[in-house]
């Protein structure tokens, strides 16, 4: 929030220079983010904490804070309001129909002259980031900046039925606001209305119909206090944030409304003339009284690590305008109602500590045994998974947890199973994501324009709506994309190999189960399909299982999905349930020494029918190779005119290695012959080419 240095100096004559003031506030109260020179003034941008907006969002409140820190005095000039003979009740009456309005005060004036504000008001409004409009509106804004209490002025002649009603909006009700926008209201929003229509969105924005114009002669000024959460939700629902809504959203002191209203009427009379009507509407059903808290000086010193005397504590509290009386070994502290942040003894101790100053507290070593907190096993496992994926060449990305209907349609999913937000900030963030796939595809689409290939992974929360039950879990997903046609041929097997390394390092015995088309259709029709399942090609994908339990899915992204997401080239994707995987994974790893003896490489090619699945061939080679076969990589998949019709060629590179000796060619040749015979015996249409 922005504050005028000159304005503050009027209130605290002993104010230090702007830069020194910034240091004092930052050390003892609020961070001063910047100090900017503006003509003969300086503007301080002060980060007022949300729990202090009720008392410190106005210049008077910040002046009190500065005076308390410096031990100075605050000069606040007061003037008695003079009322005329004409009665307010003859011009307007008010009624509050909702308990969400905690206090409603109203005064009236007749014969005002609407014109430009004096220069000193305009300068201060501009310094604080507000645009001058006219002397009536500017006066209400000025008092808000002075006291922190938002106010609103109506043209009295536009109030239908000469009655103001504070009520809940009606379904389908609309209001044309002062910002030239029309807002659709509902029953959760408080409005200030007359007998005909809503005139103000309470605590947020005034309406155009009852606003002050150049022809206005008679006015009604209100100051009110509303329920904070209600104003905050209305502001979010309408996507309308104002200076008033910021203040009301965190809760204001109802006792401030009356003081601010008197100040506003005096200022309007000064800059616009007019007669103040006799009487005041003040509807205040549950009056807020000062809170009393017992404070133990011994506890203060114990918590702060200080040796303050009782008199020191009393002095600090009185500088903050708290009432203090001593009762034996305790202090009875009376808290002003504007300090809504003070609710218990520890809050008072914090006040004493910050005004006394951290610079006066000597650091001391902690006394007693320090017991480290128990490790969060779930987070530790997630970090372990992150390290593993980074170790096998993937880069981590972070995406929003929100998606739009366009994203859902792009991956071929149904929005009915997604958790929908009631008040999305924009259409692209209308749903909570049910999978990480859509975000990764966006990452790939953007980055593949600049690189030939990308390797990304993400770990994050996903959300599913299963009937009336909302399910949340942590998933890990990754994508590999290539524009090179040659590289894209083996991309599926590169991903499979990378995942195999991941599972091996994690200590789980996972396997890949490529379902037949009819099996896959059953999976997609189920209530809880595997994560990412809608995105993948039905013939070039696999379920990932541990035993019979599905933990995820991997495969080539369907061309339709690639086109919808704008990804050029080929992409493969995996998604795993990290929560489930973490529960299954071994906590302790068994390490075995790496063989000191050289390995032997052999290549083998196999001519097979087009409908042959890679995993079928891999299983035969792995089972036949025995313990000396330590690794197997796919090096080529070829389909072309040179091959017989209906045939394709698989090529593998096999690595053999013993733990206790150097292998001889004869041993490896024997194993290769056994693999060849087993492959050809497995299927008469398989032909081995070495």
Automatic annotation (TrEMBL):
GO cellular component terms listed in the entry, alphabetical order: phenylalanine-tRNA ligase complex
Cofactor note: Binds 2 magnesium ions per tetramer.
Predominant location: cytoplasm
Catalysed reaction, written as an equation: tRNA(Phe) + L-phenylalanine + ATP = L-phenylalanyl-tRNA(Phe) + AMP + diphosphate + H(+)
Keyword Disulfide bond: no
The enzyme's E.C. designation: 6.1.1.20
Family stated for the protein in its record: Belongs to the phenylalanyl-tRNA synthetase beta subunit family. Type 1 subfamily.
Cited NCBIfam families: pheT_bact
Protein name, UniProt field: Phenylalanine--tRNA ligase beta subunit
Gene responsible for this protein: pheT
């Amino acid at each position: 929030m922005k504050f005028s240095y000159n304005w503050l100096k009027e209130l605290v004559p002993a104010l230090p220079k702007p830069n020194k003031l910034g240091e004092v506030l930052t050390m003892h109260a609020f961070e001063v983010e910047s100090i900017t020179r503006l003509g003969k003034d300086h503007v301080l941008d002060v980060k007022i904490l949300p729990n202090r907006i009720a008392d410190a969002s106005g210049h008077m409140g910040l002046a009190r804070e500065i005076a308390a820190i410096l031990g100075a005095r605050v000069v606040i000039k007061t003037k008695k309001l003079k009322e005329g003979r004409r009665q307010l009740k003859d011009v307007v009456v008010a009624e509050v129909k909702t308990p969400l309005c905690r206090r409603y005060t109203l005064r009236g004036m007749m014969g005002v002259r609407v014109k430009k504000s004096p220069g000193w008001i305009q300068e201060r409004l501009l310094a604080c980031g507000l645009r001058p409009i006219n002397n009536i509106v500017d006066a209400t804004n000025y008092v808000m900046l002075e006291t922190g209490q938002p106010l609103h002025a109506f043209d009295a002649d536009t109030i239908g039925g000469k009655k103001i009603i504070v009520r809940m909006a009606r379904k389908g009700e609309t209001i044309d606001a002062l910002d030239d926008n029309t807002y659709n209201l509902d029953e959760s929003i408080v409005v200030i209305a007359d007998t005909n229509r809503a005139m103000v969105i309470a605590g947020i924005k005034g309406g155009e119909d009852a606003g002050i114009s150049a022809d206005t002669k008679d006015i009604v000024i209100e100051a009110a206090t509303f329920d904070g959460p209600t104003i905050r939700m209305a502001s979010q629902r309408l996507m309308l944030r104002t200076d008033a809504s910021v203040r009301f959203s965190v809760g204001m002191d109802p006792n401030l409304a009356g003081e601010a209203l008197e100040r506003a009427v005096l200022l309007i009379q000064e800059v616009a003339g007019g007669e103040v009507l006799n009487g005041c509407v003040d509807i205040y059903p549950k009056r807020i009284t000062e809170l009393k808290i017992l404070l133990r000086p011994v506890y203060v010193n114990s918590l702060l690590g200080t040796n303050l005397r009782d008199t020191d504590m009393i002095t600090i509290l009185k500088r903050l305008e708290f009432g203090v009386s001593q009762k034996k070994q305790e202090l009875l502290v009376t808290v002003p109602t504007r300090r809504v942040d003070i609710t218990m003894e520890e809050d008072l101790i914090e006040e004493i500590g910050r005004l006394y100053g951290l610079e006066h507290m000597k650091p001391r070593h902690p006394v007693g045994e320090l017991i480290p907190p128990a490790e969060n096993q779930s987070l530790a496992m997630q970090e372990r998974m992150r390290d593993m994926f980074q170790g096998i060449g993937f880069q981590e990305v972070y995406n929003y947890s929100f998606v739009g209907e366009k994203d859902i349609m792009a991956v071929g999913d149904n929005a009915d199973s997604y958790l929908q937000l009631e008040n999305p900030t924009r259409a692209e963030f209308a749903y909570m994501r049910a999978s990480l796939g859509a975000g990764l595809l966006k990452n790939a689409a953007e980055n593949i324009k600049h690189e030939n290939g990308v390797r990304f992974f993400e770990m994050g929360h996903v959300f599913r709506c299963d009937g009336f039950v909302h399910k949340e879990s942590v998933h890990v997903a990754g994508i590999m994309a290539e524009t090179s046609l040659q590289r894209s041929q083996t991309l599926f097997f590169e991903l499979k190999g990378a995942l195999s390394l991941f599972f091996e390092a994690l200590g789980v015995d996972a396997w890949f189960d490529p379902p037949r088309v009819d099996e896959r259709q059953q999976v997609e029709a189920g209530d809880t399909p595997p994560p990412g399942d809608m995105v993948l090609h039905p013939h070039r994908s696999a379920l990932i299982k541990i035993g019979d339990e599905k933990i995820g899915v991997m495969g080539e992204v369907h061309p339709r999905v690639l086109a919808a997401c704008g990804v050029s080239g080929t992409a493969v994707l995996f998604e795993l349930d990290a929560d489930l995987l973490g529960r299954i994974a071994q906590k302790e790893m068994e390490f075995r020494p790496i063989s000191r003896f050289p390995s032997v490489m052999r290549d083998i090619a196999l001519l097979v029918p087009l409908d042959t699945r890679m995993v079928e061939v891999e299983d035969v080679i792995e089972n036949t190779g025995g313990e000396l076969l330590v690794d197997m990589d796919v090096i080529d998949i070829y389909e072309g005119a040179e091959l017989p019709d209906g045939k394709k060629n698989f090529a593998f590179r096999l690595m053999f290695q013993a733990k206790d000796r150097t292998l001889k060619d004869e041993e490896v040749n024997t194993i290769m012959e056994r693999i060849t015979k087993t492959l050809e015996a497995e299927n008469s249409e398989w032909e081995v080419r070495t």
